[in-house]
Amino acid sequence: WPLGRVNDSIKEYQNAIDTLEKTEKVELINSALAHIHGSKAYLESELSNFAEMDKDLNKAFKYFSKLEKIDVQSLVETALIPSYYGPYYGVYKNKIDYTLLFKKYISLLSIIGGRSSSTFLWANHDYLWHVYEKYPIESSLELSNALVSKMRNCSKGYDLGVFLYQKAYFEFYKGDYDRALNTAEESLFEYVRGNGWENNASIEALGLIADIKNWKGEYEDALVISKKQIEIYKRLGFDNLIGISDECSPLNRIYK
């Protein structure tokens, strides 16, 4: 799926589920099914298939409940999936205090792997997306800068690209368009270096660059980039993510 072949990944996960469902449900099989349903739920959410995401989450939790020994990290990361996506977050936030869950999880990771571990940095990155609108953008940008600096020492390619994307978004949100553009272009470079052009992460970086160029008045560049986005989206099967009603979609940008 990091290469953008999300539909293919979902099919492979489903094949694995179908095979394991026919196997005697010992601890190892229940654990595998919990993990696979959680992973499939995340990928379904990437395609905005929230009903399917919901089904897989329920099945993941069912198998987690059967385990004698639970992988806490996997359970928490599965529980956090709805917090990343708007429509279903409203349903789940009445059942789960995501802010508290993030804080407890980050605290746990600081003990397990230390504050410089990749997992700890990722949890803070995700938590920042969850809370940034509640604080001055300068505070979020300061934390994002710190996370990017630590990730540079931890990983390159896709991981660094994700953290740079967040930093670029906050710079854009703040109105610092020139700096946001430079950071977004670096994010795209890291995505391409890690996984090539045709993947959903590179598409998102292109979208942010197009939005920034729109605000800078560079409309022709934004149009060319938006059309490139659509080409890649269609080749990867992300057709339901480019509707005119979606303000961040390339079609919406072109239509305007």
In a nutshell, what does this entry contain?
This protein has 256 residues and is mostly helical. It has 13 helices and no strands.
Describe the secondary structure blueprint for this structure.
Layout (H helix, E strand, L loop, with lengths): L5 H16 L5 H20 L3 H15 L7 H9 L5 H7 L5 H15 L5 H14 L5 H16 L5 H17 L2 H19 L4 H16 L3 H18 L13 H6 L1
Helix pairs in contact: 1-2, 2-3, 6-7, 7-8, 8-9, 9-10, 9-11, 10-11, 11-12
Walkthrough of the structure:
This protein has 256 residues and is mostly helical. Helix content is 73%, strand content 0%. It contains 13 helices and no strands. The chain is globular and about 60 Å long. The two termini are 31 Å apart.
Main features:
about 260 residues, 13 helices, about 0% strand, globular
* Cα-based radius of gyration, to the nearest Å: 19 Å
The low-confidence parts are none
Write down the secondary-structure element order.
Answer: HHHHHHHHHHHHH
Structural class: mainly alpha
Number of helices: 13
Mean pLDDT: 86
**What separation lies between the terminal Cα atoms?**
31 Å
Number of E-state strands: 0
Helical residue percent?
A: over 70%
Give the strand content.
under 5%
Largest sheet: none
Shape: globular
